[in-house]
Structure formats: structure tokens, C-alpha cells
Here is the input.
Amino acid sequence: LEWTVQIRGEPADTAAVSEHRVYLLLSRPTPPWGLNEGGALHVMYADTRALDLACKWAEGHATLPGAAAAVTRAVNGELGLRYAEDNAPRFIKDMRVPGVGSVKSFDLDAFLTARGEVFVNSEDCAALVATFSNILGCSLSEMRIGKNFTCNFIKVIGGDSWEKDEEGREYHEVAMEGAEGSAFNDCLVYDASLHLDGSATPGAEKEPEERQPLLPAGMRFSNYADTFKVPRAIVENRSYREHLASNDTSGVLKCLNVSDRNGSPLYKRKPVRR
Here is the structure.
């Protein structure tokens, strides 16, 4: 931009020239980003550092689902993150809020300044995908599923081998589209923390080259009601829950959304801490 100054009766002179970066987004940012018009706890102005990364990851995508999928792929494969064996989050921190108390937040500064080998869990990955997708205009929430369910063969973020978790996961978190209004099983999952075996037999013993790596990036949560009998018919590349959890009473029947005291799915968008 060229800035000019003019004194009445005198010709205009150039006072300064400045450069500015303009961000063209797919839609208005959603929480935890926004204008904080209502004074909401979890809403803050968009951080240009987050915008720079999100725009880089989603470059070339003209739809919100495409942008969310691109962010999911970037978190999974471009940052060098590895899954934490102790399942402890790295970037999720408690934040004290006056009048509210302690809330879980996403530590943006800790993420941006992390160096070396960085270990994360599913909660970190869900927050990363939701936070960076929503600054582009997506509307993802972070959802927790749990009840100590056992898993099919999966390849965790940063891992090289397919492993079957038979001891049971206390919980698992994903970024999810539609959590605030749709039936839970119809919601779309964006999970950067792992690759599923997208074949029709994800729980079977087989050679690694026989598996079909599938990163959940817009995958329907489930084609079945929560109480549908097991074993269930599994269709290739469809139904996140049935590919993640083992096809028995210890798996899919326990892989359920964590609900609030009223029985509604417990979704959240962690505030950004910086």
C-alpha cells in the first residue's frame, strides 16, 4: 500500500509504502477462533502463525472437507510426530480462567516451538486438526470415545508397523464434523493419530503388504447402531468404528461416544493458549 499525505492547497506526496499479507479463507473462522463478539471463553482472534501453517497445508483445496482432510494428512505425515507410549498429551495444558476454574486448552506456543522428537497422543492430534481446520472456516469438534475397547490392527502416527491393541484403550479422541447437530454415528471423523487397515478384515492376521493403509479424513463414524449385534459385516474403507475397534463385545460394543450427564455426545473445542 502507498500512503500519501496532502496539505490543503499543496500537491500530494508519498509518505510511506507498506506491505501486508492478506488471507483468503474458505469461510469465517469458527471457535476457538473468531471475533469473540459474545465474550465466549473459547474464542480468540485468529493467530497469523496458525493461519500461515493452515493455509500452507490446505493450499489448493476449494472446499471445507477438502481443507480438513489436508490438515489431517499434514498433522499425520509432515510434522515428524510420534505416538506416545504412555498415551500422555504433549500440547494439552490446564489453563486457569477467572470465575470458571481450570479448563483444558491447546498450547499453540508449545506446538510452534517444539523441537526434536515430539511424542503426542490422540488428544493432541484431535486438537491440532480441529484448531488448524477451524481457522480456515471448518467446524470440527474434539470428541472422546472410550470404555476400554480393544482395537484391530492399526499403525500409529510415526510408527512403522501394524499393531493390535488387545489390552484395551481407556479412551481415544478424534476431530469430528457434525458433532453439534447430527446423529453421532453420521458424523465425519478426521483422525491424524493413526492409519486404519481399510480392508474388510482389519482384525485378521496377515502380511503388512496385504493391509490397506487408510487415514481417516472425512470417514463416517459408523454404519451401525451402537447396540447392533456382533460380529458385523465390514465394508472396505467405510465405517470408522468397525475398522478401529475389534469386531466383538470387547471392541465395537465398547467403542462409544463419551456422553455428558444428560446422555448427549460430549464435544468440545479447546481454547487456544499462547
The chain has a mean pLDDT of 90. The first strand starts at residue 2 and ends at 5.
